[in-house]
């Protein structure tokens, strides 16, 4: 019987806009991934990620969980982001049922996150929780590539739906902050697909509400 190996990684943990995408990738032999020279998706250009994603899907079982901005806001009322991701990781493991699992640890404590995952599983695969796993294990690199390409495609779809370019969705992206601030100024509300429970959103709202030019409204 083949030993099935699974890698799990996410894309879109930090953005103020768009979904969180978590990918599980499973294969029996990582050699095919090594031959593709898969790497952490952040180290690859968009065109290369898209090419590799197509090739990965041909040789691996792939499962995805997408959590929209609205769903994140609702879930954050109950769970921390780490707990939310742990539950998603476990759901993917239960779907794929691998013998060995390698995850990109989202907690500062690798051991704590490992125990959190193991405690939620209904069977006993080998579980490895590691920081920068997407740069160490090919199967996690593959999951990183899948998650990133799916999120990028979703941000492109959002851009088409709203008729504007929101940038990458990350708070560090000036285009994203300019877009969200501009939409807020023009419409008095945040654009669709914004994560209202994020600190960046709260800051932008405070900046909007308490601009000197608006003080006469009070």
Largest sheet: 5 strands, mixed
The assigned CATH architecture of the largest domain is 2-Layer Sandwich
The shape, in one word, is globular
Mean of all residue-level pLDDT scores: 94
Strand content: 5-15%
- Helix tally? 8
Tally of individual domains? 2
Order of helices and strands: EEHHEHHEHEHHH
**CATH superfamily (homologous) name of the largest domain:** Ribonuclease H-like superfamily/Ribonuclease H
Number of strands: 5
Strand order of the largest sheet: 3-2-1-4-5
Structural class: alpha/beta
Poorly predicted ranges: none
Characterise this structure:
It is built from eight helices and five strands. The protein folds into two domains: 5-159, 2-Layer Sandwich (Nucleotidyltransferase, domain 5), CATH 3.30.420.10; 162-217, Arc Repressor Mutant, subunit A. Helix 2 (46-59) crosses helix 6 and helix 4 crosses helix 5. The chain has helices at 31-36, 46-59, 69-75, 81-96, 110-120, 138-162, 174-187, 199-209; strands spanning 5-11, 20-27, 61-67, 100-104, 126-130. The chain has 218 residues and is an alpha/beta fold.
């Amino acid at each position: 019987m083949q030993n099935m190996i699974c890698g799990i990684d996410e894309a879109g943990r930090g953005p103020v806009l768009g979904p969180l995408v978590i990918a599980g990738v499973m294969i029996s032999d990582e050699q095919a991934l090594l031959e593709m020279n898969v790497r952490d998706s952040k180290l690859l250009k968009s065109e290369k990620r898209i090419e590799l994603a197509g090739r990965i899907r041909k040789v691996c079982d792939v499962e995805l969980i997408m959590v929209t901005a609205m769903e994140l806001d609702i879930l954050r009322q109950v769970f921390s982001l780490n707990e939310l991701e742990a539950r998603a990781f476990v759901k993917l493991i239960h779907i794929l049922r691998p013998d060995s699992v390698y995850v990109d640890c989202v907690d500062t404590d690798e051991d704590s996150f490992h125990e959190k995952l193991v405690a939620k599983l209904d069977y006993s695969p080998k579980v490895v929780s590691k920081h920068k796993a997407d740069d160490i294990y090919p199967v996690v690199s593959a999951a990183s590539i899948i998650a990133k390409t799916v999120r990028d495609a979703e941000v492109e779809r959002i851009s088409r739906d709203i008729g504007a370019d929101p940038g990458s969705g990350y708070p560090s992206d000036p285009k994203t902050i300019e877009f969200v601030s501009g939409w807020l100024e023009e419409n008095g509300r945040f654009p669709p697909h914004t994560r209202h429970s994020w600190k960046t959103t709260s800051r932008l709202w405070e900046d909007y509400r308490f601009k000197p030019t608006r003080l006469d409204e009070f």
